[in-house]
Amino acid sequence: MNIITQRLLHLHRCEEVTWSTLQLLLQIDPTLSSCYQLTPSQLHQKLQFQIPLEKIQSIYKNLQSVTIASMLEKYKSQNIQCITRFDSSYPSALKQIYNPPWVLYVKGNRDILLNNQMLAIVGTRTPTKYGVKITDYFVSSLVNHGWTTVSGLAKGIDARVHDTTIKQNGNTIAVLGSGFNHLYPRENLQLANEIIKENILLSEYPPERKPNRWQFPARNRIISGLSLGTIVIEAKAKSGSLITANLALEQNREVFAVPGPVDSVYSDGTNLLIQEGAKLALTPEDVLIEFQTQLPSETY
Fold first, then answer.
1. Which of 29, 40, 183, 292 is the most exposed place for a label (fewest CB within 10 A)?
2. Greatest extent of the chain over all pairs of C-alpha atoms, in Å
3. Which residues does UniProt assign to the signal peptide (predicted)?
């Protein structure tokens, strides 16, 4: 690992260093050496006062609290792998999205990221029996055709996606909205531990970052960004799953929605997506045909 990558990781762990802060620092100094060689006042001037001096001072204090060596040793002891935007192993699909993560923290089998055949599957946290049944049906078929599933480890549909994928001996990626040491929701800790045995837990947040509400919509851009398409299975009219679907559209990715009963609030979101132009997904073949992959007809 070169010194620039080490500095990037060191800065990235500071809570004061936002995506745009890091972009500014890289623009004025691609080696990131300024943060280690200049005083806060000097860096403030070099940045043309675009970052408040108080914030720079706070960043310096944070940097001085943990050495690069101790940080890297801690990551190693926790089996945390780091992939930066400048690494060849950084997923090419993510490079194309708005504000691609500077760093991906990974636990598990990072080789799964090399598979470009990824599909996001998301939905409500409180699925009906219909939603669970449809999730199992779609996941089983897609996995059997070599697709990696991507979801957010939330309770409900997300957790079912990961669990069914594992049971089908497929590959799955769980994208977190927090750091690994503050996994949310805690009720899915056992599932998370199962995932890292052969699959991937992934986060753009350093291990000690606690969950905050704004981090989950930001997380959704990674779920859709890794994937060629997003499938929504059961969602209310106002749902995080619809945020993921809209992000997929912004990223020029396919969006599919599974219809549901018109008298179910858990189908309001998916039916609305279809009404607004999302592709209707009655069977996995409706999804696979978009990517030139044929699926034998099945019943469920």
1. 292
2. 68
3. none
> If one looks up domain 107-291 in CATH, what number appears?
3.40.50.450
3-class secondary structure per residue, 162-210: HHHHHHCCCCEEEECCCCHHHCCCHHHHHHHHHHHHHCEEEECCCCCCC
Cβ-contact 57, 84 below 8 angstroms: no
Per-residue b or e along 3-19, where b marks 16 or more CB atoms closer than 10 Å to that residue's CB = eebbbbbbbbbbebbee
Q: Is the pTM of this model over 0.70?
A: yes
pLDDT for 294 equals: 43
Instruction: Output the six-digit token pair for 105.
Output: 């923290």
SS3 233: strand
pLDDT digits (tens, 9 = 90+) for 6-38: 999 999 999 999 999 999 999 999 999 999 999
62 CB-near residues (< 8 Å, 6+ apart): 13, 14, 15, 16
Strand order in the sheet with 148-151: 81-84, 103-108, 200-203, 172-175, 148-151, 118-123, 229-233, 254-258, 279-280
